[in-house]
Amino acid sequence: MEKLNETFAALSHETRRAILARLKQGEARLSDLTIPFDISQTAVSKHVRVLSDADLVIVEQRGRVRYCRLNAEPMKAVTEWLKDYQNFWPEQIDAATLFFGADGD
Amino acid sequence: MEKLNETFAALSHETRRAILARLKQGEARLSDLTIPFDISQTAVSKHVRVLSDADLVIVEQRGRVRYCRLNAEPMKAVTEWLKDYQNFWPEQIDAATLFFGADGD
DNA sequence: CGCATTGTCAACCAACTGGTTAAGTGATAG
DNA sequence: CTATCACTTAACCAGTTGGTTGACAATGCG
């Protein structure tokens, strides 16, 4: 229930969405995530903490390295929540077009 | 771009999602929105402000009354963003089942 | 062992959030 | 015109967020 709060809040930051986007390409070390962002490792660590608290990222420690991977499962609840608002989209485009692509995105 | 930040942030509060849910049933005065929530009118006013800043609610003043109505349009961008993560859902259920219902909603 | 690598924790900070109460504004009913 | 209704604005407050730096812990290489 209030899980949605956490998920939405976690997704409401550019850097965290960028981290998730990066993780779509596969596992990454925490230190790998630090490089592209112009913030300290501590800051990245905090963002990853927020994401893992929200279950959007799973952190696994192997040796001295933390490996992060994506867990998109909580996004299901968000998608379900959004579903209830599709009827209220302004020009009621075919949802299938958006979700599955008409003929290329 | 950073619009998504605002949308996600606006959606990350229970009360604001409840306001949106209420507005699915149609237009409401600001004072109508205050009643079901155990907070002051000022607090509701602030929540509505956040929602209207995020373009999720359109406030129209007629006489001395502010009427609020839902604008689900920004949710399209959220849905599009989420679309890129469907492939990463754990047990890859058929998206059509979730979005359009298996046999009625 | 000794030391670099990888990351956390603690303390601090400024800015934002979500709530309050009290005062102010502006439209309408009488 | 005055009072009331429907809000907003202002001031305040505690707690959270997002960032910093510096010290610490744990792993693994040589």
Helix-strand blueprint:
2 copies of one chain form a homodimer.
Chain A (H helix, E strand, L loop, with lengths): L2 H9 L2 H10 L4 E2 H5 L6 H13 L3 E6 L2 E6 L3 H10 L11 H6 L5
Antiparallel strand pairs in A: 1-3, 2-3
The structure holds a DNA duplex (30 and 30 nucleotides).
Overview of this structure, please?
Chain A is α+β, with helices and mostly antiparallel strands and 105 residues long. Chain A has one domain (3-84): Orthogonal Bundle (Arc Repressor Mutant, subunit A), CATH 1.10.10.10. Helices cover 50% and strands 13% of the residues of chain A. In chain A, strands 1-3-2 form a 3-stranded antiparallel β-sheet. In chain A, helix 1 (3-11) packs antiparallel against helix 4. The N and C termini of chain A lie far apart (33 Å). The relative contact order of chain A is 0.15. The model of chain A has no long low-confidence stretch (mean pLDDT 87). At the A-B interface, helix 1, helix 2, helix 5 and helix 6 of A face helix 1, helix 2, helix 5 and helix 6 of B. The structure holds a DNA duplex (30 and 30 nucleotides).
What's the order of the H and E elements of chain A? HHEHHEEHH
Q: For this structure, what is the CATH homologous superfamily of chain A?
A: Winged helix-like DNA-binding domain superfamily/Winged helix DNA-binding domain
Instruction: Please give the share of residues in helix of chain A.
Output: 40-55%
CATH architecture of chain A: Orthogonal Bundle
At the fold tier of CATH, the topology name of chain A is Arc Repressor Mutant, subunit A
What is the approximate shape of chain A?
Answer: elongated
Output the CATH class name of chain A.
Mainly Alpha
> How many individual β-strands of chain A?
3
The largest pleated sheet of chain A is described as: 3 strands, antiparallel
